[in-house]
Specification:
2 domains; 4 helices; 80 residues; mainly alpha
């Protein structure tokens, strides 16, 4: 973790581990003014298909993903 303080603050605000890590690392690698400027393109998990959610869960190695419903996958991804 390149900016542990920022990571902890983002986690306390409710961001997932992966999102907080990505933002903290990006902030450490660039000027803080442009962090997050590219965001907002992926849309809500609610708009994804179960197959897309499952694929993302595979990437994040979420346990039990093969037995999860679409709603359960969304919950697991949001809490990762």
């Amino acid at each position: 973790m390149k900016d542990g303080e920022l990571y902890q603050r983002l986690r306390q605000e409710g961001n997932s581990k992966s999102k907080a890590a990505a933002i903290a690392n990006a902030a450490a690698n660039s000027s803080r003014s442009d962090v997050g400027a590219k965001g907002g393109e992926s849309g809500s998990y609610d708009d994804w298909t179960r197959e897309e959610l499952y694929s993302r869960a595979q990437e994040l190695d979420i346990p039990g993903r093969s037995d999860m419903t679409k709603d359960e996958l969304i919950e697991a991804l949001r809490n990762d």
